[in-house]
Amino acid sequence: MSENLELDFSRRPPNVSVAEVEGLLVFLKGKGWLSAAEIERQTEIPERRLRRLCENADGQVLTGQKGYRLFDETVTLEEAEHAANWLISFGKANIRRGVAIRRRYHSFARERRAL
Question: How many CB atoms sit inside 10 A of residue 69's CB?
Fold first, then answer.
């Protein structure tokens, strides 16, 4: 069985302007780690939109269990490495989950055709 697992990482979620991303970067400057809830309280940016802004910030925002922070000269190498590893691990876990769902779907479809 051949699985099509082509992944297009060049595509970005729509509906996020450069001005919005820049606004988030300005807001985060000098604030250290902030939770999504704290950012939403202060900016009225819902968490889902915050994630999209970060995805479009070209690595300028660290994310992880601590929350969100600007990747600036005050970030330690350990913080940057931890944030990168956390995101990569999260991505791998979701890819494995997606592949498992696809396998289950194909198995289910074969069984239905056999009926």
Answer: 20
Long-range contacts of 107-113 (CB under 8 A, 24+ apart): none
Range of the domain at 41: 18-114
Mean pLDDT of 82-96: 95
pTM of the model: 0.75
Residue 104, pLDDT > 70, answer yes
Is 72 among the domain residues?
yes
The Cα-based distances of 50 to 76, 110, 111 in angstroms read: 23, 40, 42
**CATH code where residue 89 lies:** 1.10.10
Structural domains in the chain (count): 1
